[in-house]
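Researcher: I'd like a structural prediction for the single chain below. Treat it as a standalone chain; there are no partners to consider.
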Amino acid sequence: MNEDIPITAVVTETAPRLVGPAGATDCHMHFYGTREDYPLAPTCPFPPPYAPVAAYRGLMARLGLERVVIVQPSAYGTDNRCTLDALAEFGAAARAVVVVDESVTDAELERLTGLGACGIRFFMLPGGVLPWSSLETMAARVAPFGWHVQMQLDGRELPEHEAVLMRLPVPLVIDHTGKFLEPVAPDHPAFRSLLDLVEGGNSWVKLSAPYETSRYGPPLYGDVGALAKALIRAAPERMLWASNWPHPSARDDPPDDAVLLDLLLDWAEDESSRRRILTDNPAEFYGFPANPP
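Model: Treating it as a single chain, here is the predicted structure.
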């Protein structure tokens, strides 16, 4: 395969069993354009698939999703143009998490806020551009604009950073059920750190991308599922769901998006809990209208 020519992201045709409630929200996904329009950053960890708005709209229709949180991918570094262009197409039905560094001005943060940006992404894996040393500085910079910090890391590192994460002056969102690169059990100290953060009252968790870390695999991803169930039991009001479409780390063998949504039938005990995770929590956290039409 010529890595200079992106493959097109897959949109699965399977219909989910779960009927999404009004206002159902995908809280983490990415858009990728052509190389000509949006050049990859030098730090890009791997060539992403071509994933345009039109393809994602098809996925939204199939899964019954009405709102979306667009996350700046590591492929573009601090060049947020692809994310912001997609955000403009969705209008009030979308929010964005972007990547800005210490050179950003308050005027630019105000502009981004007006466009629908509400968070700064810290990606602490290969391809990330913001270091740990800038976390508290940038959290303080974005706090006056009502932003949050979105964090992706190897969850096994949480005990080392728990104190810093606990004292951030903004809300914290942790990706992918903690993304423990070496799967852990619910009684593991690193998972206990994740629970401590959630129970501390200022942290949220995205229940997403189990295929990236699970050893058990589909359809239930039981090892990651055990962590998701424990998190939902501990703090259902701080859980969010996300597709992670177009699954850039699994572009050659992407998971079935309907299967990923249907995981909530196993992870959450009842319809009320699923509505909270899919609609109510995102509405509260990202500022979407509480009562969608």
